[in-house]
Design brief:
The complex is a heterodimer of chains A (582) and B (246). Chain A has 582 residues and is α+β, with helices and mostly antiparallel strands. Chain A has a domain at 267-460: Alpha-Beta Plaits. Chain A has 26 helices and 15 strands. Chain A is globular. By secondary structure, chain B is an all-alpha fold. Chain B has one domain (6-218): Fumarate Reductase Cytochrome B subunit. Helix content of chain B is 63%, strand content 1%. Chain B is built from nine helices and one strand. Chain B starts with 5 loop residues before the first helix and ends in a 20-residue tail after the last strand. The chains are: A alpha+beta (582), B mainly alpha (246). The interface between A and B is large, with 75 and 63 residues. Strand 8 (203-206) of chain A pairs parallel with strand 1 of chain B, so a sheet runs across the interface. The complex binds protoporphyrin IX containing FE and iron/sulfur cluster (SF4) (2 copies). Protoporphyrin IX containing FE sits between chains B (40, 42-44, 51, 55, 59, 62-63, 112, 116, 207, 209-210, 213) and A (88-89, 222).
């Protein structure tokens, strides 16, 4: 047994309202730069729909992830090492910018600069790739809320796979279809095919928390990782020529803050926590022959943090005590293992993804309610779950490689919770048989409800902080140095880092992971006094002000208070210059 | 033999060493200063149809050409003779392989340059250094191919393996004989000068990617694990704060 810790996420899809707040805040934080205009570390897809980039789930076309070769061994679907090296000069399976979308801006200048004329001036769309005028024909969410209608939706690879397997024609007429949202980030897989595809070894999985990252100094732009990832969550920065991906907001997570997408999620549907797993069994589990067994195989790789043997092994493997405790309190463990309502996204890609989903019951509830019967009655819901082949089949295609059984089980649990809790809410005697039909007790159902519906911040996000002191005696000193003795903008190239060094855009030193110092940010956000503006680095300005009080230095000092002014006014300047200098 | 002129000494003695020093020093310097800029800067995201043809043609061509140069320049004639390879056989293979590879390289490069110029997004992502690089690289390739073509079509009694090659190896023994180059035909002279100029330019262009060809991929384990501590922060520790041990 080789115990490792993995940071992961669970999203409860019933609660996603498709507002895209997560995508926007993520973009603001990480990819609001040139070269990554088209990059969405977090995106929210309408299902059914084509996804982003278009049809990325069609692995017969994009060849992402792993497959079993003729001898039943795990191999990269796009080809092994030699094949990769021979096709490196022009990657045969790289999505082009059209498969994402051509990013654009508008010629706003024209609105104010256009000469007086008979026509109202317009702001034309301009491509951010070529700088030319362009027609906007597609973007990251062109088919949002089923926009574009059946013609677009029909190209959804999941629908196609379903149609082929079940031989059912999915009805796409507007009123008969179902819809839900699927927010996606990088899965920070246990068996990441992006890492395996990187020829220069620049991508790595962090041993402490399993976060998958690209070393920007080692990436050489071979762009094989983009092909390797079946979820298409590695993107190519076309200005710097380097791959970039979701970082699980590691600078935040390291100090115990949730990722930006979770923190800002309007539906509060994201859970972050630690899972312990047996690294020795990952490859074996990923090689499971029957795709339908992959979900269970991955579940068996996880280790029970409450098992004393596991805890001891974990400690032996150097996992800190507070991480083991965090694993015991992990909402992921509860949702994946205790209540068994979370499922992995596309386990058949064999990367052992670590962002799991609670499938939505809402398509079922909607049908029941539209039929004019009680949408909170267990019998009605169970009946509908059994009858509604299409949404169930679709969810199974997403979460269990097409096996409807686990999806049905999860939905029945959610349905049972729904009707059981109605009695509780109405103050009526509860019906224990409802809980019993899904193999739970009433108390368990109530606990699950608590976690799914009410859990406060610190139960949704159980994030142990990184141990900077481990094996690195100077790290702490370095941290102190960073907060106290130098300006966080004091690095090669200065703030912004746009423009680049002598070898074109993006050359020169790497921009720091975040200009904001997250330790400081956290201190400020958790302090109940106004942050102390003891020096210029910590000074609160309008950009980092959190609304608490009116700290000194928030606004520039009014002219009269400027200390230099009176001094100069006294005429002590030998040159006789009396003008106050700024 | 006439005594060497200053120009000869400068061209065949000083210039190569200056270029090699710039190459090595430049690579070391760039690797230390600008790892972040060390990339192919792939433009496949913008355009793939032309790249699908141009890039493999060019790269496979140039790699074979490179191999040919290693054979022709670095392996002395006496070695191949000792192996029982006759001069004629060597020549046939060299010319056949060289011509095919050279033509592939040239066609590939023509496609790549055409693509750089005509595809809007690729053109706007082209830096000044790219242009200079293509100019010099193109010159080297065209001159080299021209030499081969002239030698084959017109016939020539110049044997570079006893002239140019010996001089080239001499550079690495630190005793090059400039007279050998001074006696070489003008085509070879120009090719050699352009090639050394390319070496001097190399560290400052995107060509650096060739020096980090990912051969290690063949042997490393698929999944790379790295410890967080080994790579903390995005900036090197300042003097006095370096980590100990590890
Ligand atoms: C030996 C290993 C090499 C590998 C693996 C390699 C790989 C690559 C790759 C992946 C690209 C980017 C293509 C794209 O997507 O746009 C590229 C571009 C390029 N390479 Fe190489 N290369 C190698 C050697 C060389 C050598 C020896 C030269 C020249 C002497 C060279 C010259 C170029 C040039 C000029 C480009 C730019 C093509 C363009 O106009 O976009 N490469 N190389
Ligand atoms: S989802 Fe993330 S970790 Fe998994 S293969 Fe893709 S980029 Fe790699
Ligand atoms: S912020 Fe939350 S609710 Fe809104 S789209 Fe993102 S995941 Fe869904």
């Amino acid at each position: 047994m080789r115990v490792m810790a993995q940071m992961g996420m669970v999203m409860n899809l019933d609660k996603c309202i498709g507002c895209h707040t997560c995508s926007v805040t993520c973009k603001q934080a990480w990819t609001n730069r040139s070269g990554v205009e088209y990059v969405w570390f977090n995106n929210v897809e309408t299902r059914p729909g084509q996804g982003y980039p278009r049809t990325y789930q069609d692995q017969e076309r994009w060849l992402g992830g792993w497959t079993l070769n003729r001898r039943g061994r795990l191999s990269l679907k796009a080809g092994g090492r030699l094949k990769k090296l021979f096709s490196i000069f022009a990657n045969p399976k790289l999505p082009a910018i059209e498969d994402y979308y051509e990013p654009w801006t508008y010629d706003y200048d024209n609105l104010v600069q256009a000469p007086l004329g008979d026509h109202v001036p317009v702001a034309r769309p301009k491509s951010l790739i070529s700088g030319e005028d362009m027609q906007v024909r597609w973007s990251a969410n062109w088919d949002d809320d089923l926009g574009g209608g059946p013609d677009l939706t029909r190209s959804d690879p999941t629908l196609k796979a379903m149609t082929e397997k079940a031989n059912t024609q999915v009805r796409l007429e507007f009123e008969k279809t179902f819809m839900f949202y699927l927010p996606r980030i990088c899965e920070h897989c246990l068996n990441p095919s992006c890492v395996a595809s990187c020829p220069s070894g620049a991508m790595y999985k962090r041993a402490e928390d399993g976060i998958v990252l690209v070393d920007q100094d080692r990436c050489r732009g071979w762009r094989m990782c983009v092909t390797g990832c079946p979820y298409k969550k590695v993107y190519f920065n076309h200005r710097t020529g380097k791959a970039e991906k979701c970082t699980f907001c590691f600078p935040r997570v390291e100090v115990g803050l949730p990722t930006v997408c979770s923190e800002t999620c309007v539906g509060r549907l994201r859970y972050i926590g630690v899972m312990l797993y047996d690294a020795d069994r990952v490859a074996e589990a990923a090689s499971t022959t029957d795709e339908h067994d992959l979900y269970e195989a991955q579940r068996r790789v996880f280790l029970d943090p409450n098992d004393p043997v596991v805890a001891r092994e974990a400690e032996r493997a150097g996992i800190p005590r507070d991480w083991i405790e965090a694993a015991q309190r992990s909402p992921l463990w509860a949702l994946i293992n205790t209540y068994r309502v979370a499922l992995p996204l596309h386990p058949e890609y064999r990367t052992m993804p670590m962002v799991w989903y609670i499938p939505p019951l809402s398509p079922v509830v909607d049908v029941v309610r539209d039929a004019g019967v009680d949408g909170e009655d267990a019998g009605n819901l169970f009946g509908a779950i059994d009858a509604l082949r299409i949404p169930i089949g679709y969810l199974a295609e997403l979460f269990t490689a097409g096996d409807p059984a686990p999806v049905t089980t999860v939905l029945r649990r959610l349905a049972a919770m729904r009707s059981y809790m109605r009695e509780v809410n109405l103050g009526r005697p509860t019906d224990e048989s409802i809980a019993a039909t899904v193999g739970m007790t009433g108390d368990e159902v109530q606990d699950m409800f608590r976690l799914l519906a009410l859990a406060p911040y610190d139960e949704r996000y159980v994030i142990p902080t990184a141990h900077t002191e481990l094996g690195d005696p100077t790290a702490l000193a370095h941290k102190l140095e960073e907060t106290a003795t130098e300006c966080s903008l004091d690095y090669e190239g200065g703030p912004g880092m746009v423009g680049g060094g002598p070898f074109g855009e993006g050359s020169g030193g790497a921009a720091p992971i975040a200009v904001e110092n997250f330790h400081m940010l956290k201190d400020r956000q958790t302090a109940d006094t106004v942050a102390d503006p003891s020096d210029r680095v910590q000074r609160v300005n309008l950009l980092n002000w959190d609304g608490k009080g009116r700290p000194e230095g928030l606004f520039p000092a009014p002219p009269a208070e400027r200390p230099t002014a009176p001094q100069l006014m006294e005429g002590t300047d030998p040159d006789g210059e009396v003008e106050p200098r700024p | 033999m006439s005594p060497l002129s200053t120009v000869d000494v400068l061209l065949w003695l000083v210039f190569p060493y200056v270029c090699l020093v710039i190459l090595v020093g430049g690579l070391v310097w760039r690797y230390r200063y600008d790892k972040f800029g060390w990339t192919t800067r792939s433009s496949q995201l913008y355009e793939r149809r032309l790249l699908r043809w141009g890039s493999p043609l060019f790269h496979f061509g140039i790699l074979v050409v490179l191999l040919g140069h290693v054979m022709g320049l670095l392996i002395p004639e006496s070695w191949t003779t000792a192996l029982g390879i006759s001069d004629d056989a060597y020549h046939v293979v060299a010319v056949a392989l060289g011509t095919v590879a050279g033509v592939c390289t040239l066609v590939g490069m023509a496609i790549l340059i055409y693509r750089r110029r005509t595809v809007g997004p690729v053109f706007s992502a082209t830096t000044k250094m790219d242009k200079v690089m293509y100019l010099v690289l193109g010159t080297v390739i065209v001159l080299g191919l021209a030499n081969t073509a002239i030698a084959n079509i017109l016939g020539s009694d110049y044997d570079y393996r006893t002239g140019l090659s010996v001089w080239f190896r001499g550079i690495f023994y630190l005793q090059p004989d400039p007279a050998l180059m001074a006696a070489a035909p003008i085509g070879f002279q120009l090719h050699a000068v352009a090639a050394f100029a390319l070496f001097a330019l190399w560290p400052f262009t995107r060509l650096v990617h060739a020096f980090t060809a990912p051969v290690g991929y063949l042997t490393r384990p698929y999944i790379v694990y790295r410890s967080r501590d080994a790579h903390m922060g995005s900036r090197a520790p300042r003097r006095g704060w370096e980590r100990t041990g590890s």
